[in-house]
Each structure stands twice: as structure tokens, then as C-alpha cells.
Amino acid sequence: MEQLTPQQETDYNNAWQLANQANDAFNERHKAATKIAEAAIGSEVKGLKAAFAQADQGFRLYESAAEALMPGRGAFETSIPTEFEYFASETVWNAMSLEQKVKASEARKVIAERFQAHGVTSESLRVVQHETEEGKKVFTLVHTGNGVDIGNPTKDFDKARSYNSVMAKKNNDLFNVQVGGITYDTREGMTDAAYDALVADAKAQEGSTLPDSQEAAKENNDLWTWTMLTGEPLTAAGYVQVRYVYGGGVRGSVDLPDDDYRGLRVRPAVVIE
User: Fold this and answer.
1) Distance CA 32, CA 183 (A)
2) Whether the model pTM is above 0.85
3) 187 by DSSP, 3-state: which?
């Protein structure tokens, strides 16, 4: 009998865990539906329907993750695949738990759909990793291309792309996404550490163009772009922190909150816990 490779064994175990967790989620969904059927009409039903909606969303998360991690197969098919779809370096992917892979897969799908009009695709979303001072691994799903211009791209200056506008409540519908019944603000994940991890990840990929670099601008027929660190607070003087790449390294600067030049971008990012 042919022996499984270590990676195949890991993938098999992950798939088995996913199936078991999905089965538990389906059972919770079934119990919630049964309670609705047995309940009397009134406020009790309303509460039970809310509980069912939450259980259903939890099951759908696993269902979507199965398709994202095992493309081309029916959800929870009896034959276990030996490969997952990776959207991180092998080191980062192997360091993630199954639950984190499930959540990242669903978030990737949701964010790509939300920002499709701004050039974000599933392929442009990748998980990167950094460590806190305490040694905790932090995984962030982040857009890897040039950042998103939410202003009018034909205008050199547009207040819609300023920090004040990006962070305003009027843009919550754009930047807030739901994954597994939880709302995530894609502005909060773009921190200084996440940006450094993004550039380090790009450097590690052979032939990859660094984001917000002169080379990226030429390849995309774009301006030299600057990413706002929307997940960091303003400086003590009230300035916005921005980052870009020059000479292969990350460079930092600051802008006024109402600066709105055409190269100023946002970069959707979500921490995967």
C-alpha cells in the first residue's frame, strides 16, 4: 500500500476535521429548525428564527470553506482530497489552524466580491504573518496588488479618497464584511506590522513585484501608490501614517487626514484569529 506523504497526511487530517466540524454545525442547524417547527406562534418563534439564522450561517461558512479549500468537489464529498488550495506561503499556511484556514477562505471570497469593482480578486488576497513582541503569530488576509482607489481615478484630487472620507461612517457598508456571522472592518487590519509582512511575503516569492513600488506602477500603468495605515491611529500631531516601497524597502511618511492625491490608496485587510 502506498504511504501518504507528510503533507498528504496533514491535508487528510484537516479535511477530516473540517467534515466533523461541518457535521456538528449541520446538527445545530437541524435542532434550531426543529424548535421552530415545534414552537407556538409569537415572540418565541421570532427568537428561534434568529437562532436558526445564526446556526445556518455557521453551517454555510463550513460549506463555503469546503468549496474554497477543495475546489471542484461537492461540499463534504465522501472521498477526501489530498490537497488544499493555498493562498499563503507554505510556512504560513502550515502554521495556521484548520479553523483559521476555514475563516480565511470565506473572508477571501467575501472581500473579493465586495471590492470587485476596485480590482480586488480572490487571487490578489493572500495571508501573511507577523509576530507580536510576545511571540504571538498574527495572520492577516490582505490585498496584495496596488491599493484600492475609492475616489474617481480620473481626478488628480478627490476628497472621497482622503483618510477622513475613508474612515467616515458613510463608507461602513463598503469596508465592513460579514464572515461566519461576525462583522469585520477591512480597514482595521492594515497596520504597520501587516504592511511589513506583506512586503516580506512578496520578496520571498520569486519573480513577484513589490506593492507600492515604481516597478508595480509601471506594470499596472498606474501611479506610484501610497497605502494608508487605516488600522493605525493618527500620530500625536494628527497625521495619517502612509507606507510605500522604494529601493526594495518599506518607506514611511505622513499625510494630512484630508489629503486626497491620486496615488493615495487603501488596502483591505482582515486579521484571521
Assistant:
1) 22
2) no
3) coil
